Each structure stands twice: as C-alpha cells, then as structure tokens.
C-alpha cells in the first residue's frame, strides 16, 4: 500500500477551463485552451493580468469543473492505497472554504481526515505526489508525478501523467 498525495487545482479541478469560462463570461471572448500551451498559468488572455484577479473572487474555487476521470480513479486508488488530497489553500483567502465544499460535493468519499490544506507542500511525506507545478514536485522527497496542464507542457524533468486513466494504469 502506497501513500499518494494528490493536488487539487489543475489535477482534480480544471483550473484552466475555469479561467477560460470566467474570462468568456466577463469579457465575451472565449480563449482556446490550445493557445495557452506553454504559457505561465493565468497568462495568455487578451487582457493581461485580469485572470489572476479571479482567484480572489467568491465562487471561483467552488465552481471549477472536475477533470475527467478523477472521481473514478481516485475512488479506486483509495481501495488499494492511502490517499491524501494536498492543496495549497492559504494564499487566496476564499479558497479554503470553497475547496472544502468542492471536495464534499464532487468527492464525498474522501474523509476530512485525508484532506491537507497547506502553504508549501515540501512538508508532505508520501510515496507519490501528483501535482501540476514544478515548485511542488521539485521539493518532494517521494516520486513526483507531473499531471499535464497547459502551463507545464514544456517541463521535462518529471515523470508525466496526462490523464487520470494514465494515473490508474500506473498506480492501480
């Protein structure tokens, strides 16, 4: 049985789609996900800097779409492994309560005992960390698994998983 730490934003919750949806709703312009490939997160939109402001708005974290396959694979992982959701939730004041409510709605099978909200993730002790950010994976002492997101497509120093089906094939 392995201990698996799983990030939320960009791994379970589709942050990129949420940026696109909120930008389209606010400014009437739909940005293609492909146009964001290789660009730093929250950049690549016609009005520079506005997308980062969404992170401070009510319901941004609460209404993110679930990434395809996450619910099924995480539930299956729990049957074989010790699974923890590990999410940075301190930087944006509204995110903590919204992330918890999001998890309760979309992942009701995850106990509160297995949810870790933190700042830096380097304190996490697990066998695997599934995350989309270099800053978290580079300090992890177990085996880092980079979950593909537009902002990390050019990163090559970590083992990559592109979908939840690939996570399942690797860890189930």
From TrEMBL:
This is 5'(3')-deoxyribonucleotidase. The active site is at residues 7, 9. One of its GO terms (biological process) is pyrimidine deoxyribonucleotide catabolic process. GO terms for molecular function: 5'-nucleotidase activity. It holds the Pfam family NT5C. Belongs to the 5'(3')-deoxyribonucleotidase family. InterPro entries: 5'(3')-deoxyribonucleotidase, HAD-like_sf, HAD_sf. Gene3D superfamilies: Deoxyribonucleotidase, domain 2, HAD superfamily/HAD-like. PANTHER family: 5'(3')-DEOXYRIBONUCLEOTIDASE.
């Amino acid at each position: 049985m392995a201990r698996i730490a799983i990030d939320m934003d960009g791994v379970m919750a589709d942050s990129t789609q949420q940026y696109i949806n909120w930008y389209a709703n606010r400014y009437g312009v739909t940005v293609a996900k492909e146009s964001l490939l290789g660009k730093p997160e929250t950049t690549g939109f016609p009005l520079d800097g506005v997308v980062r402001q969404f992170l401070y708005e009510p319901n941004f974290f609460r209404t993110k779409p679930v990434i395809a396959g996450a619910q099924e694979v995480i539930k299956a992982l729990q049957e074989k492994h010790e699974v923890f959701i590990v999410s940075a939730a301190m930087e944006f004041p509204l995110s903590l309560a919204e992330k918890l409510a999001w998890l309760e709605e979309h992942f009701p099978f995850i106990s509160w005992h297995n949810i870790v909200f933190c700042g830096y993730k380097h304190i996490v002790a697990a066998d695997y960390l599934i995350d989309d950010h270099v800053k978290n994976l580079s300090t992890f002492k177990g085996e880092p698994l980079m979950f593909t997101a537009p902002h990390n497509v050019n990163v090559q120093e970590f083992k990559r998983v592109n979908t939840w089906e690939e996570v399942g094939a690797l860890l189930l």
